[in-house]
């Protein structure tokens, strides 16, 4: 029998049933990945590639955006999703330029990422440095771990 870590709301009532359905879908996907031994998900064709991590206070989303100016990036949060939109522009070249190979894509992009816990959207910050966008998303108070004191009767 598998041991499942307890989390608030795992088997009880949730205020947002859609968030619970997304969480359940992630858990099922993770379960199937563990059975098949394929923990990695192919990201071919997905732009920008992202990493999502967390500590006790924040979620961090790091997106690879080489060649994208910070002025061309738009970040929004909606419900429990982070939306990164933008445009990668290629500098105009002369009419006599002939490409032998052109692998770098240009144009508008959008990536929507479901976040693993609730955030305080009023304190979200973002920094773009060396082609890597780092979005810091502070966890909502109800999403932070809380230690409960045990009293003796």
Kindly report how far apart the N and C termini lie.
35 Å
Give the helix level as a range of percent.
Answer: 10-25%
Strand content: 25-35%
Query: How many strands, what sense, and barrel or not for the largest sheet?
Result: 4 strands, antiparallel
Model regions low in confidence, pLDDT < 50 over at least 5 residues? none
**Helix and strand string, N-terminal first?**
HEEEEEEE
Strand order of the largest sheet: 1-2-7-6
Mean pLDDT: 84
What is the rounded Rg? 20 Å
Compute the number of helices.
Answer: 1
Q: What structural class do helix, strand and pairing data support?
A: alpha+beta
| Count of β-strands | 7
- Rough outline: elongated
Task: Tell me the quaternary state.
Answer: single chain
Description:
The mean pLDDT is 84. This protein starts with 16 loop residues before the first helix and ends in a 15-residue tail after the last strand. The chain is built from one helix and seven strands; from the N terminus they run αβββββββ. A hairpin with a 2-residue loop joins strand 6 (125-129) and strand 7. It is an alpha+beta fold and 153 residues long.
């Amino acid at each position: 029998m598998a041991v499942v870590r307890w989390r608030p709301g795992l088997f009880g009532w949730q205020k947002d049933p859609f968030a619970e359905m997304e969480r359940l879908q992630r858990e099922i996907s993770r379960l199937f990945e563990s059975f098949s031994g394929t923990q990695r998900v192919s990201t071919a064709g997905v732009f920008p590639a992202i990493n999502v991590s967390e500590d006790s206070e924040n979620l961090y989303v790091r997106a690879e955006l080489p060649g994208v100016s910070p002025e061309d990036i738009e970040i929004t949060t909606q419900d429990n999703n982070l939306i990164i939109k933008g445009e990668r522009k290629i500098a105009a070249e002369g009419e006599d330029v002939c490409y032998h190979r052109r692998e770098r894509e240009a144009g508008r992009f959008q990536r929507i990422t479901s976040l693993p816990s609730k955030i305080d959207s009023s304190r979200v910050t973002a920094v773009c440095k060396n082609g890597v966008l780092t979005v810091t998303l502070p966890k909502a108070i109800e999403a932070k771990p809380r230690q409960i004191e045990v009293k003796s009767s």
